[in-house]
Design brief:
- With about 500 residues, the chain is α/β, with parallel strands linked by helices.
- β1 and β2 form a beta hairpin.
- It is globular.
Length: about 500
């Protein structure tokens, strides 16, 4: 194995031109590969356009810049999500492959989350190294436009409205995979798209695009907020108007001239304006339009173009602890405040619901009830409803719940949003900046990671997550409602129902 570093730098011919990657251990890696034209100047807030290509051989040994975004320092959960450099010219992807040969390996396309305002394919957390090495897979991850540059709805000078340019970016990346991945040792007919949070919602939205053929055959949806409906065009244009006021621009034409740092800065003002106590809020939301997102994402995987896609889907037990467990605003919540929030979903039954949640967690504080209630509302209940609906249609779906709690912050987080990610990737060394991993027993942690990582690899390769080192994981069906519980002891749970 010691001779691998002596291999010459590989060159692969793509449809846009040749690119030179690098040998990293047993893998060949290509970074910062353009998959669409730079969305700058007149292409700001326009759908992704084909890249014009290049002459000569493009150096693909360094990550491209991420989509412009704010940097949050000192995040007590993740330690940060998205790191400089940033630039509007951000539409690049990265490829990890065991070999640029004709092996036609299964392909994993990973789409990062981050509430559509943070993250990038350059983050070490999302390196495709472990999946490519351990699963003999070709792995692709990508940048896409975020925040105001990706989700602001704009009317063009010809009167046409443009929504969801972030989704046109992702579609362009999938087209790039279809056109080029065979040259990287991958099989364009054996693609799995996976994502977490906003990346999972993206995956469901992408399932609505079949075209002349299905761009992927499997989907992995981690912590997908299925209860968060897409905005209507009218709602989104109203948010654009509010954003214009915050920036101080009279119209979109003027906004096109504003430097991107100012656009990102104004996002904080829009977040403040749209925030509701006890709710997960995002300054920008995908839009239900007549083009890229013509239906709610969940419908794509039920009766839409993605109905035949194999699906693996799940959530973490205390998703909402990510948002509510540590901040003083919520840590000091009163019962009356949480009852008020419960009325949004339970109406006159709020008091009864509060009592049921409190009884299910002995010694629960109001913030604990808030965490469980909102986790159910946004993630757990709609995920189980989706699994029920898929099962009723005879469509393949495997469901899981990640229950392994972190001892960080005196155990207040439980198993929060994002905690399953380092287990799925089995790359804890790439998460050294993340406080929520502190204090874990490494032997137990690493054993669970091997189990999950191999299950994901098995699903990507065969459409079935089972492997010899874990309990039998049956498809979700209505008689048994089998859900895999990933915890200190991993076990299949039957007839799991919402709290």
């Amino acid at each position: 194995m010691g001779f691998t570093q002596d291999r010459p730098a590989p060159v692969v011919n793509t449809r846009s031109g040749p690119i030179r990657g690098a040998v990293e251990g047993d893998l060949t890696v290509f970074k910062g590969v353009p998959y669409a034209a730079p969305p700058v100047g007149p292409l700001r807030w326009r759908p992704a356009q084909p890249h014009p290509g290049w002459s000569g051989t493009l150096d693909a040994t360094a990550y491209g810049p991420g989509s412009p975004q704010a940097v949050r320092e000192g995040d007590p959960v993740l330690g940060g999500h998205g790191f400089p450099p940033f630039d509007e010219d951000c539409l690049t992807l990265n490829v990890w492959t065991p070999g640029t040969d004709d092996a036609r390996r299964p392909v994993l396309v990973w789409i990062h989350g981050g509430a559509f305002i943070s993250g990038s394919g350059a983050m070490p957390n999302y390196s495709g190294e472990t999946f490519a090495r351990d699963g003999d897979l070709v792995v692709v991850n990508l940048n896409y436009r975020l925040g105001p540059l990706g989700l602001l709805s704009c009317a063009s000078d010809d009167g046409e409205e443009h929504h969801n340019v972030w989704l046109t970016d992702q579609l362009a990346a999938l087209r790039w995979v279809q056109d080029n991945i065979a040259a990287f040792g991958g099989d364009p007919d054996h693609v799995t798209v996976a994502g977490q949070s906003a990346g999972a919602l993206s995956t469901a939205a992408l399932a609505g695009h079949g075209g002349d053929g299905r761009p992927f055959r499997r989907a992995i949806l981690q912590s997908v907020p299925l209860a968060m409906p897409l905005a209507t065009p009218a709602q989104s244009l109203a948010r654009t108007a509010a954003y214009l006021e915050i920036v101080g621009a009279k119209d979109v034409d003027e906004l096109r001239t504003v430097p991107w740092p100012r656009l990102v800065e104004a996002t904080a003002g829009l977040l403040t304006a749209t925030m509701e106590w006890g709710h997960w809020t995002a300054p920008f939301m995908p839009v239900l339009d007549k083009g890229a997102a013509a239906r709610q994402p969940v419908e794509n995987l039920l009766d839409g173009p993605g109905a035949d896609i194999d699906v693996l889907i799940g959530w973490t037990r205390e998703e909402s602890a990510f948002t509510f467990a540590l901040g003083e605003m919520y840590a000091s919540s009163t019962e009356e405040q949480v009852l008020g929030r419960a009325r949004d979903g339970f109406g006159d039954g709020a008091a009864e619901a509060y009592a049921a949640y409190a009884a299910a967690r002995p010694g629960a504080r109001p913030v604990d009830v808030l965490v469980d209630l909102t986790t159910d509302e946004l993630f757990r209940k709609p995920t189980l409803a989706f699994a029920e609906a898929r099962a009723a249609r005879g469509r393949p779906v495997w469901a899981y719940e990640f229950c392994f709690p972190t001892p960080a912050h005196d155990g207040r987080l439980g198993a929060p949003h994002c905690l399953e990610l380092p287990f799925v990737f089995d790359n804890f060394d790439r998460w050294s900046h993340a406080p929520f991993l502190a204090g874990m027993d490494t032997r137990t942690r690493d054993g669970l990671a091997r189990t999950m990582h191999q299950a994901w690899i098995s699903f990507i390769r065969t459409g079935d997550p089972n492997h010899p080192a874990m309990p039998r994981w049956d498809r979700y069906d209505r008689p048994s409602r089998t859900t895999m519980s990933f915890d200190t002891v991993t076990t299949a749970v039957s007839r799991l129902t919402p709290r």
